[in-house]
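Sequence, please.
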C-alpha cells in the first residue's frame, strides 16, 4: 500500500518540463520583439510631441507677425494724422518707391520716409526741426537713402510691393499717387529769406506757381510675399481719411 502512494506523489514528466521553462525565462526573440514594440511606441510618442511643439512655434510666429503688422499700420496712421504743410517742402509725395511726408511734433517738424527695400518695409525719420534749412536738407537727403542711416527702422519684412493712392473729394475717386492731382494756384512770391537762428519753419509770405493740394484720403496697399508658415497672403489695404486744418 505504501509503494503505490509513493509513486503517485512523484511529479509527472510534463509538469517537470513546464517548471523548467518557467525557470529558464524569456528567449532572445521574445526580448527583441518587446524592445521593438517599445521603440516603435517611443517613436510615435516623440512624433506627437514634436508636432505639438512645431504647431506651437508656428502659432507663436504668426501671432508675433500679426502684432508687428498692426504696430506698423498704427505708426503709418499716426504719421498721416500729424501731417502738416510747411510750404517749405512737399508735405506728402510718393514717387513709386518712397513715400515722404512732414509731420508735426512737439519740438518741430519731422520728415518721415517710408520705402520698400528688397522685401523689407523701412521707415526713416529725420530729426525734428523748427528751421527751414534743416528741413530742406532732410528732404534732399531722403532721395539718397541707403538703409543704414541713423533713424532708419526695418518695420516689416515679407513685403513684395508698396502702392499708395490718393482720394480727392472733388472728383470723389481714388487716383494713383504718382499722377497729378488738384493744383492750387497762387500769385508768384519772392524767394524767402534765410531763417534766423532758432526761427520756426514757417511758410514764406506767399506761395509761388502751382502746387499740388493735399488729398482728402490716403490708401496704402501692401503686397505680401509668399512664404511657408505665414497665415497672411495676397495684399493688405488700409484707408485713412485726412482732415485738413
Amino acid at each position: 500500500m505504501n509503494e503505490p502512494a509513493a509513486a503517485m506523489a512523484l511529479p509527472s514528466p510534463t509538469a517537470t518540463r513546464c517548471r523548467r521553462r518557467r525557470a529558464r525565462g524569456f528567449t532572445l526573440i521574445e526580448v527583441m520583439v518587446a524592445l521593438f514594440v517599445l521603440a516603435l511606441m517611443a517613436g510615435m510618442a516623440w512624433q506627437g510631441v514634436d508636432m505639438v511643439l512645431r504647431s506651437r512655434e508656428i502659432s507663436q510666429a504668426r501671432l508675433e507677425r500679426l502684432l508687428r503688422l498692426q504696430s506698423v499700420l498704427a505708426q503709418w496712421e499716426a504719421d498721416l494724422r500729424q501731417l502738416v504743410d510747411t510750404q517749405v517742402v512737399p508735405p506728402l509725395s510718393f514717387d513709386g518707391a518712397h513715400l515722404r511726408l512732414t509731420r508735426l511734433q512737439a519740438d518741430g517738424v519731422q520728415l518721415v520716409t517710408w520705402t520698400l527695400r528688397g522685401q523689407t518695409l523701412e521707415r526713416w525719420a529725420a530729426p525734428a526741426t523748427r528751421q527751414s534749412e534743416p528741413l530742406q536738407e532732410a528732404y534732399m537727403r531722403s532721395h539718397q537713402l541707403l538703409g543704414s542711416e541713423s533713424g532708419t527702422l526695418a518695420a516689416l519684412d515679407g513685403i513684395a510691393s508698396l502702392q499708395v493712392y490718393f482720394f480727392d473729394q472733388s472728383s470723389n475717386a481714388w487716383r494713383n499717387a504718382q499722377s497729378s492731382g488738384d493744383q492750387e494756384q497762387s500769385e508768384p512770391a519772392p524767394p524767402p529769406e534765410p531763417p534766423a537762428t532758432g526761427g520756426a519753419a514757417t511758410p514764406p509770405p506767399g506761395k509761388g506757381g502751382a502746387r499740388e493740394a493735399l488729398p482728402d484720403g490716403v490708401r496704402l496697399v501692401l503686397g505680401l510675399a509668399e512664404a511657408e508658415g505665414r497665415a497672411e497672403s495676397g495684399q493688405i489695404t488700409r484707408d485713412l481719411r485726412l482732415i485738413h486744418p
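Residues 28-81 form the longest helix (54 residues).
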